[in-house]
Amino acid sequence: LPLSSSPSHHTKMQSITFNSQNSPIAAYAASRLTTHHLNFLCSKDKNASLDASGVALENNNQQQEVFGNFALAAYLLNGTEFVHKASFSWVEFAIAFLRTTSLADLDQALQRVNHHLQMRTFLVADKLTIADLCVYEALKNNKQVNGYFARFGRDYTPHLMRYVDFIAHVPEVAFAETILNQTIKKKVSSDDILVMTSQSAYKINIPLPGAQYGRVVTRFPPEASGILHIGHGKALCINRFLADMWGGQMIFRFDDTNPAKEREEYEEGIIHDVNRLGIKYETFSHTSDHFQTIMDFAEKMLRDGNAYIDDTPKEEFTRRKQAGIESDCRTNSLEKNLKLWEEMKAGTEYGKTCCMRAKFDMSSTQKTLWDPVMMRCVPLPHARTGDKFKIYPTYDFACPIVDSIEGVTHALRTSEYTDRDVQYYRICDALGLRKPVIRAYSRISFYHTVMSKRKLQTLVDAGIVDGWDDPRFPTIRGLIRRGLTMEGFFQFVASQSSSVNVATLEWDALWSVNKKIIDPIAPRFTAIKQSELVVVDIEGVKTTTRQVPKHPQNPEVGHKTVYYTPSIYLSKEDAKLVKDGEEITLRNWGNVIMTEIQRDATTGEVLHMKGKLNPDGSAKTTTWRLTWLPKNDDLANVNLIEYDYLFSAKQPDLSNVIETYNKDSKKVYASSGTPELKKLQKSDIIQLERIGFFIVDVPFNAERPEDPIELIKVPEGGSLQQKKK
User: Fold this and answer.
1) DSSP for 398-466?
2) How far apart are CA 326 and CA 371, in angstroms?
3) Which pairing describes strands 373-377 and 355-358: parallel, antiparallel, or unpaired?
4) How far apart are CA 557 and CA 473, in angstroms?
5) Which end of the chain is more exposed for a tag (fewer CB within 10 A), N or C?
């Protein structure tokens, strides 16, 4: 460690080792009191110390050399309010105290401190200083002190014991001691402990080389050329959760480098989806905020001979590249390159035929180094910069530049970009930029699903789906509309984070996680398809109501009103199970003995039923426990909507999504439901007993009571195709 001068805010420090007998409480607490980050690791070497050299502790031109464990604390606090001229003698005392071994010397030293603290809270002045940190550490690391306090402290050093307890509860000291104790116990670094104990509810298993707790900066850089789908959602969550785990920050940045593709409504839609997921970000930016800086860097590459302007037709360049032949423009003089650069900047007809290529390595085995395009002439107005620029950077050129200047420490992206990592770092090297660490994770893909924004746009434009929020779409808003909860999605992302191999998943993987979230809290109600209603007359019943729990295992969900009427409805499917004279159990009511069942003479279909209550009956003695509806005028008019895969094929034909989509992927069942359904709000998730989970898409409208409530079925995890079989 360079102990010759005070460090700046951005000073980088390596992991610092210490031995378990000399826990560096003062140094770690000092790092918390200042803006410095330290990462400690307990050494197996019992003789290890922080630093053997000294540092000059200065205050008002007075100096004192500090050695050993306290050198780093002195180094961090030099020139701050935590150094006072009266601190010197106490730091010296702490150094000497660590060497105290005899009980007599120990007693004398402790008595001295106790007497000094008789009328004081701190050792020096009226606030915490380095004196308190060093003396506290010396007391804690001297193994004889605890025994002394246990035997004599209350009688001989009560003021010192009060002081030790007080300093132990200073937040920075308490934090340092807790983390260092865990570091010793678990044999990992203090940063590892911070990550393990972070407040992030979702742990992402992606190592971040070089990460410093509190200094990690990630970024989520979507392009405003479509609405967020589940793949973007995974990227968003991974960046946010890793930042949270490391006590860091996330940048939400729009990659708006292509004015031909971006739309303002897409940007607004993406912001809406991010906010709906409840994902927070510390910084919001656009790549276009840095267009002028990127232009300057591009010109620097030209002047440094690391780039050239190429007017070779695209098809010709591709042919030559495949043959390993360099562009003739690669040998352009600087004067010619700058002249063509001006043509591009002006957006002339000739300028539009040119692009700027990096002059990297056409012979490399890494194809991303084969003189990639860095800037292209697109004389179109930009949503944020207007007509100011006629040249725009490619994502590959802009990304490392903006990542570096915005302070990104770890650039996380899907594994299909791994081949471009060398290009990313080559650009940083060429421009002399700080290089963020790139980490890869797996791209997410699902069977029966199209993820291409362009193909999804085709389906939207053709009117095949409701829009970008169609429940069959893999978009965030479509999945939420279908019943995906934030918690379910977050847990799913966390469970998928460790893989770097691209894999195609069944949707069951997502929906089974979601079911675990909604099952314990979804209130239970009843609905029956209108085509399936069968009337049952029950003898001796008067119309009444009763309050029953909405959820049989979770009373916190609340209560609902159950309506009891002389006639009720069963479903035809249930009615055909019942035999004449059989006793059944009606849920939330009791037992009924079926005294008469009328059936169609030809089909055997149940037409009407009669029964009588058996107040003494038990559900334990019956075969069937059936759901039912009261027969009254207040039943809810409900449409139950069930969606299948938008594409029946596991691997959809992307060449013609209009012709190959599943035309039978949406079914609507007109149904009747309990009156309680009219109280539901949009996006409420419920369970219709013995049918499944549903989310309210269109709630009851008191001004138009004839309009049906619309409920969308929430998948539960079993494969749709398997269920059909």
Assistant:
1) HHHHHHHHTT-SEEEEEGGGGGGHHHHHHHHHHHT---PEEEEEPPEEETT----HHHHHHHHHTTSSS
2) 9
3) antiparallel
4) 31
5) C
| Dihedrals phi, psi of 686, to nearest 5 degrees | -130, 175
Percent helix / strand / coil, the chain, rounded to 5: 40, 20, 40
Which long-range contacts does 182-187 make (Cβ < 8 Å, 24+ apart)? 183/40, 183/41, 183/42, 184/20, 184/23, 184/42, 187/42
Q: Which helix (H) or strand (E) holds 138?
A: helix 130-141
Question: How open is the CA angle 503-507-508, to the nearest 5 degrees?
Answer: 110
CA angle 42, 46, 49 (to 5 degrees): 70
Q: How far apart are CA 643 and CA 715, in angstroms?
A: 9
544 φ, ψ to 5°? -155, 175
Instruction: Give the pair of three-digit tokens for residue 216.
Output: 């990690």
Q: What is the pTM of this model?
A: 0.80
DSSP per-residue letters across 21-87:
TS--HHHHHHHHHSS----EEEES-TT--S-SS-EEEEETTEEEEE-GGGHHHHHHHTTSTT--TTH
- 345 CB burial (10 A radius; 0-12, 13-18, 19+): middle
Residue 410: left if φ>0, alpha if ψ -120 to 50, beta else—which one? Answer: beta
What is the rounded distance in angstroms from the CA atom of residue 387 to the CA atom of residue 580?
82
Region at 257 (left for phi over 0; alpha for psi -120 to 50; beta for the rest) = alpha
How do residues 571-626 score in pLDDT, each as one tens digit? 999 999 999 999 999 999 999 999 999 999 999 999 999 999 999 999 999 999 99
433, 404 Cβ separation under 8 angstroms: yes
Q: Name the amino acid, one letter, at 189.
A: S
Q: How far apart are CA 545 and CA 126, in angstroms?
A: 70
Model confidence over 317-341: pLDDT tens digits? 888 888 878 999 999 999 999 999 9
CA-based radius of gyration for the chain: 36
Amino acid at 639: N
- Token couple for 174: 């308490």
Q: Which residue type does 33 have?
A: L
